[in-house]
Specification:
The protein is an alpha+beta fold. The chain is built from six helices and five strands; from the N terminus they run ααααββββαβα. The strands form two sheets. It has a three-stranded mixed sheet with strand order 4-3-5, with no helix packed on it. The protein has a two-stranded antiparallel sheet with strand order 1-2. The longest helix is centred in the C-terminal third of the chain and has 16 residues. Bound molecules: zinc ion (3 copies). Belongs to the Fur family.
Length: about 160
C-alpha cells in the first residue's frame, strides 16, 4: 500500500471526502519526509499553485489529519506546531528528534535504541509501552563546525 492509499483509506474510514485541499496538504507532507513543517510553511508552498486555499483551511485540514491519525503533531518549543506523516509501517515506535538550539534544525534518529529501557519500565511499573516521544536538545554538526571555524579564525589573528 502506498502512503497515498493509506491516506485515502483513513479519510474514507472516518467518513471524510478527498477534497483538493486535503490532497494538496497531504502531498506536501508526504513528499517532504524528514521535514517537520509548520502550518505557515505548508501554506507558503500551497499558495504557489493554489492561491484559493487560505491559512485557516490549512489549520483546519491539519487538525482533521491529526484527529484521524494521518499526521503527528510535534512541539519543539520554537512557538509553532510542526507536523509529520503518522503511519510509517516499518517503524513500530516513533523516531527521535535532534533539535539544534542554534539554528533550529530538526534531525531524525531513525533507530529506537530504547528497548532495554522499555523492558525495565514495563517490568517494574507493569506498564505496556506503545510509543514514546524523545527530543534531544543541543548543537547540530553544521553549527559546531561553524563555531570551530570562528575559533580558529580568532586564534589565527
Ligand atoms: Zn521504542
Ligand atoms: Zn544548527
Ligand atoms: Zn520526525
Amino acid at each position: 500500500m502506498t502512503n497515498f492509499e493509506i491516506f485515502k483509506e483513513k479519510l474514507n474510514n472516518a467518513g471524510y471526502k478527498l477534497t483538493t485541499q486535503r490532497r494538496v496538504v497531504f502531498e506536501i507532507i508526504n513528499s517532504n519526509e524528514g521535514k517537520h513543517f509548520s502550518p505557515e510553511e505548508i501554506y507558503e508552498i500551497v499558495k504557489i499553485k493554489h492561491p484559493e486555499i487560505g491559512l485557516a483551511t490549512i489549520y483546519r485540514t491539519l487538525k482533521l489529519f491529526e484527529k484521524i491519525d494521518i499526521v503527528y503533531k510535534l512541539n519543539f518549543n520554537d512557538g509553532c506546531s510542526r507536523f509529520e506523516l503518522s503511519h510509517v509501517e516499518d517503524e513500530a515506535h516513533r523516531h527521535h528528534h535532534l533539535v539544534c538550539q542554534v539554528c533550529g534544525k530538526i534531525e531524525e534518529v531513525k533507530i529506537d535504541l530504547l528497548q532495554d529501557l522499555e523492558k525495565i519500565i514495563e517490568d517494574e511499573y507493569d506498564f505496556s509501552i506503545h510509543n514514546h516521544t524523545l527530543k534531544f536538545y543541543g548543537i547540530c554538526s553544521d553549527c559546531k563546525n561553524r563555531r570551530k571555524k570562528c575559533k580558529k579564525e580568532t586564534t589565527e589573528n
